[in-house]
Amino acid sequence: MNEMEVCLDVETGAPFALNTAGTAAHTAVFAQTGAGKSFLLGRYLEEILLKTRARVVILDPNADFLRFGQPSNQNDSQFADAWERIPLTLLSNRSGDLGGSAHQAVHRVALDWSRLSPTEQCRYLGFVTPLDYQEYITVAIINRVAGMQRETYSLNDFLTTLRALRDHRRRPDNVDSNPLAGMPDDIDWDLLPENSLLKVFTEAFKLAELQVWPDSQDSRSVDDVVHEFTSPNSDQRLLILDLPSLDYEHAQAMLADRAVELLWANARANWLDAVMRPPQEDPRVPIFIVIDEAHNLVPPDTTGAIEASVKARVTRIAAEGRKYGLFLILLTQRPSRISYDILSQVENLFLLKLTNRIDLEFIQRSFGSLEPDMVSKAAELGLGQFLLSGRVTSRPALLKGLPRRTEEGGRSIRADVWIRSETLSTP
Ligand SMILES: Nc1ncnc2c1ncn2[C@@H]1O[C@H](COP(=O)(O)OP(=O)(O)OP(=O)(O)O)[C@@H](O)[C@H]1O
Ligand SMILES: [Mg+2]
């Protein structure tokens, strides 16, 4: 078997082989800031992509993987040659050259309004079912009217339909501008009170200002991208969602929510298809979903409706994703700030330097596979060192990560820029 070269045994300095099959489990990477999580993850994902057929989706909140497609050392031609054969898609709304190349497709992010259910649309518009039931009905009717006129429609088309319905509501006798002409005659006007139309219009107008709707030839619908990515016959291996390239947290949350939902729905559809065939004809491969800064996306308590939806969807994957081939890789500085429903399903743990006592005690209580005296060692680990336990290793071990061979993104401030080499002379 093709062994994953990720780390060395700290005691002996010898390469430490990971159990490749054991990577197909939910995994957590814990460490305080700056201890090397993203660096180690980079190496781990490089090896997964080179040594297996698995696919990887990264929800990247820090642009750490913006340059993941680029080898960091062009002199390492063996790595560069292999790496540049891995097809990758970067969804980003940044302007400027993002390194599109033969192996790296770059697209602007676009959500597909008409493929969202009315419930999802209401969630993104800020309406909560069942409380805002009138707005829900209004949204559902507008969709129906907009959908009668065209097969797919944008948020702007939705707004145009809404305006036409308002006009019609005000001047029902004006048959020329009747948006309901040709519609089945079963729409009850009382279900569309004027104030609901106004509320939906206001929220939809605000939503249309976010840069997540198709705005250029380069835009690609997240629905299409994820569908292609998850298709069993696809040659796609890596999908990176550049979350901070979207201007508002609301837009980032919508993208994360939609992407996670589509990954789930497509993986489930592939599973339904696979169970109808003999096992030897099951072409599916694992899909790893990497969530960095997981305490933001899946905290124990959520405040907004979209955040709650993302968390519910990730929790479902944590509990039931295995049979669909979906595996989480969660990174955080604060393990105790991740939903326990999700953490309780984690099998593999990479624990780098972590000194916070509350978090160390939490890990001790939550991960039986690590002895308490091992967990306490986490406070003294050096850069890149980590404790590993779970299915990915034959025994809990103290290891040191090998260097990442791809460009780091994120970027820290540079000491050579801000620390003066000479003392300022006084006049
Ligand atoms: N094993 C290593 N060898 C050399 N340099 C490393 C190693 N691990 C990390 N670094 C460097 O240390 C810095 C911090 O690493 P990294 O960004 O991976 O930390 P992090 O744990 O992800 O931090 P944060 O929680 O703030 O995202 C980076 O500049 C990285 O290049
Ligand atoms: Mg990081």
Brief summary:
The chain is of the alpha/beta class and 427 residues long.
| Main pleated sheet | 13 strands, mixed
Strands, count: 13
Which topology of the largest domain does CATH recognise? Rossmann fold
Share of helix, binned: 25-40%
Rg to the nearest angstrom? 25 Å
Approximate shape: elongated
What is the correct CATH architecture of the largest domain?
3-Layer(aba) Sandwich
What is the residue-mean pLDDT, rounded to a whole number?
Answer: 92
State the separation between the terminal residues, measured CA to CA. 69 Å
Strand order of the largest sheet: 2-1-13-12-11-3-10-9-4-8-5-6-7
- Can you identify the CATH superfamily of the largest domain? P-loop containing nucleotide triphosphate hydrolases
Q: Into how many domains do the coordinates divide?
A: 2
Q: From the helix content, strand content and strand pairing, which structural class follows?
A: alpha/beta
Low-confidence spans: pLDDT under 50, at least 5 residues?
none
Number of helices: 14
